[in-house]
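User: For a benchmark we're assembling, each entry needs the component sequences followed by a predicted structure for the full assembly. Here are entry 17's components. Please fill in the structure.
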Amino acid sequence: MAEADVEVFRHDVIVVGGGAAGLRAAIAAVEADPKVSVAMVSKVYPMRSHTVSAEGGAAAYVPGSDDSLEKHLYDTIKGSDYLADQDCAEYFVEQATPELTRLEHWGCPWSRNDDGTVATRPFGGMTVPRTWYAADKVGFHMLHSLFQHSMRFERIVRYDEHFVTKLLVDDGACRGVVAIDIRTGSIRLFLGRSVILATGGAGKCFPFTTNGTIKTGDGMALAYRAGVGLKDMEFLQYHPTGLPGTGILITEASRGEGGYVLNAEGERFLVTRDYGVGQKAELGPRDMISRAEILEIEAGRGVKGPYGEHVLLDLRHLGEAKIMAKLPFVRELSRTYIGVDPVYEPIPIRPVVHYMMGGVDTDIRGATPIPGLYAAGETACVSMNGANRLGSNSLTECLVFGARAGVEAVAHAKSASDGNEARLLAEAKTEGARIDNLRGRKKGGEKIAQIRREMQLSMERGCGVYRRQESMQQTVAEIAPLKGRATDLVLEDSSKVFNTELLQALELVNMLDVAEAIAVAAVARKESRGAHACRDFPKRNDAEFLHHSMVFFAPAGPRLDKKSVMIGRFQPEERKY
Amino acid sequence: MADSPEARGGGEMRKRTFVITRFDPDKDQVPKTQTYEIPCRPEWKVLDALNFIKDEVDPTLSHRWSCRMAVCGSCGMNVNGEPKLTCKTSLADYGDTVEVAPLSNFPIIRDLVIEMDGFMDKFKAVKPWVIVAKEKAAEEGTYRQSPEQLAVFKQFSMCINCMLCYAACPVVAKEPDFLGPAAIALGHRYNMDSRDEGAAERNEVFRGEGTVFHCSYANECSEVCPKNVDPAAAINQAKLNAVIDWATSFVVKRGK
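Assistant: Structure for entry 17:
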């Protein structure tokens, strides 16, 4: 194989991904040590990262309110269906307030009460209003505040539009990454004694998702192929309020602000029927509301539409003034993408793939089992979300565990030795040659879009809101041959300059690895817990399944294992609201 | 295709012709156009058509996009000569032929992808972060900021950096170094934030060459803004503040 030219860049810490978790990690790293240099390597400009699409809010105890850390912890653990590691969840709730406060100091335009304190709103599964918000564009404002704040630090060196293709693990430790500079197509080697993965989730494994096109599970696949286990991958959050057709997110804040969920008969079925949400009604947790919507549709009470059946989100009683003050983006999205003005009409909605509770196995420090390799945000599974994440915990999670990973990565970088640079460079050259061979590879017989579509539809059939053993097994059986076919892609674009076809091919391979891990883990969990609702096994089964599932990469196919859950002060009990 | 996500949905398909700018610096001296005729769904945005072409017709087409919900700011392009967010621009508003080109006033990297180094430099030049003499510790809690104080700058914090305003700005067209609408609006946003103490520093930037005083009041920026940020209003306010700030500093110096 011919050797590619490789440019070498040296930093102490390499952050892969420029969303909330990656930016927070980078800022924490440079603040932890005045000499540390951080490379921020992201396949998009940081402000394009998918954090930008989060809408409803970020949860944290507000000092002086009738909330408490204990309540936030309990809600989170119960919401997780007792699969969260309670030490991690406890650390999370403790750090949540200082983290959101720092963001306030950095300029985040949080909505305010009349007395100038930050305003909070109710959210699903939370017993008190503790969700800080900036109207209904919270992710957007958090991301832009973080990105703009990060520009103060000359020691955060950005490599925008660089796509990481490989983690370099040498002599047992992570030593850097290989990336394509998208603009020129050149191969770059980033050497660093610590690497933090913050690349988000993999919603694009599915056809119908709130996720942007960049959410292709790159960091998960990189870590997986480097030997780190993917944890709890079967737990996939379906958000109950996505727009039919596009899957565009309508925020849970619309229910937090008092919106109703209705069936075709105009009935508030979360109130009138027993779906386990009790008095919480529309403010029940996402897994339960998504299931309720599917059951309503199956019972013939769905509304027929061009994109299949759906239910309705009614905001009319909130009135135009409140909608414009609290939910202006919901109105803009509804009008633009489904032609419905929520001031006058209910919004068609249905469950939509939104978020992955699972991800790269890390401990409470954000550390993976490979020394020098860290992960944070949706990419990671710490785990504080267990089997079901509560809405508004994930933005805060990006800050809390992004910051922690940044600090830990610096500590590691100070004590770790440099790798064998000659060997790492040789490995980068081999990787570069692989990329060069793939680019414009016209001899293949398979189209990227075709395989991607087959993968997405198979995942939707097998790993929906409700799952059956048979359909999950079929998905597992379908993904493996798709991986084989993906080795025979035809690529028509041989240009080195901004070759997005090449990126799509690499992203497809990443998604197939992640999709397979999701399906394999789903089949193995023969119970129903949190977001994993298995019709063959409708009950939670703590005796056999109160453990994290682990999927490891192996050439012959994924290898399954398990890992114990850290139970703290809250013993598992039936999850009823 | 029958079972594909794209095939879901109703309505009559309609054939449309897209005339798209193509440019590969490895092969082309100057940009050219390429024409694609494809079936489009009635509810499609311009971006949906580009993605269909990329997936089904010509995988060599390069364009940027991500969120497809008008908030990430990636997919700004010229549609029939006007700067638009393509994910928010309905085909229903256009005829049978639609021209898609890269945003004006930027160098082209490839096809519909523009180079944004200059924009990022301008963005950073206005110091878009909270400047304070003494940083507050997290333990001290949040600042008090009334809803009225928030309202003063909130609109200017809504910019998604899509750069449509740079493509529309007649001053940027003539003076590529002009700081430009989004960057000035951003600097002004921090100047107006009650938590910030950096206005004097930013006003110095604003009084520099190629900044607020080069704006010619064309108002094109505010007209194309997909998020109603109204950068023209920000520039006008920033100009006034920069002058007042300068005059005040002069008076204070004289008074010493």
